[in-house]
Design goal:
8 strands, 5 helices, disordered C terminus, alpha+beta, DNA-binding, eight-stranded antiparallel β-sheet
DNA sequence: CGCTCGATATTCT
DNA sequence: GAATATCGAGCGA
């Protein structure tokens, strides 16, 4: 078993990939004072996005410059800028080449390099360090420069490594969207502090 | 606590 | 011009 799930892992229906990504590690390698440092977090919350079947997906209306990674090789980073303030990071995934899609990584629990993450995103409480899609990209210094990065390659400065799957998974409707709200394509590790801390899952 | 609102790039209508 | 896969500050209870 290699360090990273291979492209075949992402060549599946996006809700399946989203579910399976829980418990895996999101790894970011940064330069700090001339040295390489590893930042890593356990993925505890994801959302699946499809293609023409999914009105809420960026891929729904077809390919644009922004979403082109969703139409390319599975297992690549799709990073986009939203609300004029935040980046969000996804992994491209889809069951067939003619489809498109991605899995949004919504929250991670810091595992390695916590002190460096705090430099990127100063916050007192480590639980809130990366407990949201905009928060984790800041804590891990993920920007659109990393759009298209191969997440299946352990040499990439941004990649995903194997981890232990959670024993229990919760699914809910997706957050922050107004279309296709009926799909329960948001997945959470029910054991994560992120979930237990907020008790009831708030759904908009 | 919970609610409202500003920030403000990119895409869509 | 409007909406958006968000966050945190500010306010009132």
């Amino acid at each position: 078993m290699t360090a990273c799930p291979a492209a075949s892992f992402y060549s599946r229906a996006t809700p399946t990939a989203a579910r399976e990504l829980l418990g895996k590690k999101l790894v970011r390698v940064v330069k700090r004072g001339g040295r390489l440092a590893r930042l890593a977090g356990k993925i505890v919350e994801t959302e699946a996005y499809g293609s023409k079947d999914d009105r809420a997906s960026h891929a729904w209306a077809g390919q644009t410059r922004r979403n082109s990674v969703m139409f390319g090789d599975p297992g690549r980073a799709y990073v986009y800028f939203t609300y004029g303030n935040h980046f969000c990071v996804n992994v491209s995934a889809r069951p067939r080449m003619e489809a498109a899609g991605a899995v949004l990584i919504r929250a991670v629990e810091p595992i390695e390099g916590v002190e460096i993450m705090k430099q990127f995103r100063p916050v007192a409480d480590y639980l809130s360090l990366a407990s949201g899609p905009g928060k984790l990209t800041r804590a891990l210094n993920i920007t659109s420069l990393l759009d298209g990065t191969n997440m299946t390659d352990p040499e990439s400065v941004l990649h995903i490594e194997h981890g232990e799957s959670p024993s229990q998974i919760i699914s809910t409707p997706r957050i922050g969207i107004s279309r296709a709200t009926g799909k329960r394509w948001r997945f959470l590790d029910s054991a994560s502090s992120h979930v237990s801390r907020y008790g009831q899952i708030k759904v908009r």
